[in-house]
Structures are given as C-alpha cells and as structure tokens.
C-alpha cells in the first residue's frame, strides 16, 4: 500500500512555497553597456543638432566670434607687407574655394612674391567656426602636420615649422578662428636635377618673424573687414 509521504515521516517532498495569484517581482535586467552608450550618443547628437538648429533660426546667439568677420576677400585683406619686404614684390593672386554655411565660413587664397618662375609661393586660409569649438582639435592637428614649434603672443595657440629651410608654415587658433599661412620657395631643375632659375635665394631661416608680423596684422584686419558675422 502506497502511503502519503507525510504519514511515513518522509519530508523530501515537503515545500514551504505558498502559491498565490501575485508572483514576487523579478529583479530588473541589467542594461547592456553598449545600449547605454548608444543611447547617450543619440541624445548627445540630438542635443547638438538641436543647438545648431536653434542657432540657425536665430533663437540662440551662438558662440562669441571675437569680432571676426565673414564674407571677406582674403587676398585683399591680407597685405603681407613684412613678407614682401623680404621675398620681393607681390606679383600674382589666386582665390581658392569659399564655403559659407551656417556652421562655418572658410576661404583661402594664394599669391607669389618675386619673379613668378623663381619666386616664393604663399598660401593663406581662414576658417571661422560659427557653432562648434575648434580648440580641442587644434593642437593635435598641428602635431600631426609636424608643426611643433610654439609661437607665443599670437592668438590663443600658434605653431610653426621651417619645412627644412625651404619655407615655413604657421597655424594660429584665436577663439573661433583658425588661420594658416605658408611660404615655399619655387625653383626648377634641369635633366640632371640641378636647380636653375633662382640662383640667389633668400635665406629663410628666420621667416617665422615676418610671418608672425603679417599674421598679427591680418588678424586685426579680419575684425574690421567684411559683413557682420
């Protein structure tokens, strides 16, 4: 005869669980880290996009542009008198592409000092960031471009490189503005690789001094010329 477990003293089937209609709540499932990161990125993107849209509508003033202007004719504004005194007469100008968007205004130009066939090529660029902050990226980009010599007293940050004595490149950050000025010696070579043309080139070992002087003058002129930003 099969007896009831509790009557035989066997308690292996005894349980203290009481079944009710209300089950105990389950602990919350942990949120996956990548889902949290994705959600944060989406929110950040939405916030940035909303801020840009508000600036475009004129609901928010945007960052302080420090008096810098947009819509400038860069070749006309940049006199570069210090470089002309060393490299020779400025003889040619050429405008580069221009970008005029709600978030950024950017323009560039190139020019020649001295004889066109054996003079010095100079290029200049101007970027006005009307929404984002170019500061965090400036020094890493300069380092990537081998601009490692800091120039004090020029904007917030400035870096220079002599390009092996063949010219010079100077980049400047001043608030919402990035400026770049470069100088390179032009020359031709014959079939054997010997230089022809400019047989008495200018010593460019101290070219950072006139470049700095011209950059300071240009920065002041950019705050006075053009349409209001």
What can you tell me about this protein's structure?
With 229 residues, this protein is of the alpha+beta class. It has 2 domains: 30-62; 74-222. It has 6 helices and 10 strands; from the N terminus they run ααααββββαββββββα. The chain has helices at 5-8, 33-57, 74-77, 81-87, 135-144, 208-222; strands at 90-95, 99-100, 104-113, 120-129, 149-150, 157-161, 167-174, 177-185, 188-189, 195-196. Helix 4 (81-87) packs antiparallel against helix 6 (208-222). Mean pLDDT is 79; it is low at 1-9, 11-21 and 31-58.
Q: Give the topology string: H per helix, E per strand.
A: HHHHEEEEHEEEEEEH
Q: Could you tell me the number of beta strands?
A: 10
In whole angstroms, the N-to-C terminal distance is: 100 Å
Sheet/helix structural class? alpha+beta
Mean pLDDT: 79
| Contiguous helical run count | 6
Proportion of residues in β-strands: 15-25%
Domain count, please report it: 2
Unreliable sequence segments: 1-9, 11-21, 31-58
């Amino acid at each position: 005869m099969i007896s009831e477990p509790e009557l035989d003293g066997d308690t292996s089937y005894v349980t203290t669980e009481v079944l009710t209609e209300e089950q105990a709540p389950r602990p919350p499932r942990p949120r996956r880290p990548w889902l949290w990161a994705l959600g944060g990125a989406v929110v950040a993107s939405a916030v940035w996009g909303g801020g840009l849209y508000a600036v475009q509508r004129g609901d928010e003033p945007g960052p302080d542009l420090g008096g810098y202007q947009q819509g400038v004719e860069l070749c006309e504004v940049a006199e570069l008198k210090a470089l002309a005194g060393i490299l020779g007469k400025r003889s040619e100008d050429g405008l580069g592409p221009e970008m005029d968007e709600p978030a950024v205004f950017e323009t560039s130009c190139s020019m020649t000092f001295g004889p066109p066939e054996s003079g010095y090529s100079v290029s200049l660029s101007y970027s006005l960031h009307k929404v984002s902050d170019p500061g965090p990226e400036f020094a890493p980009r300069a380092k990537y471009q081998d601009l490692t010599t800091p120039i004090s007293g020029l904007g917030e940050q400035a870096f220079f490189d002599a390009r092996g004595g063949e010219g010079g490149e100077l980049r400047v950050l001043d608030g919402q503005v990035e400026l770049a000025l470069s100088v390179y010696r032009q020359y031709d070579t014959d079939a054997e690789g010997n230089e022809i043309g400019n047989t008495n080139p200018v010593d460019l070992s101290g070219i950072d001094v006139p470049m700095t002087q011209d950059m300071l003058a240009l920065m002041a002129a950019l705050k006075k010329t053009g349409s209001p930003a």
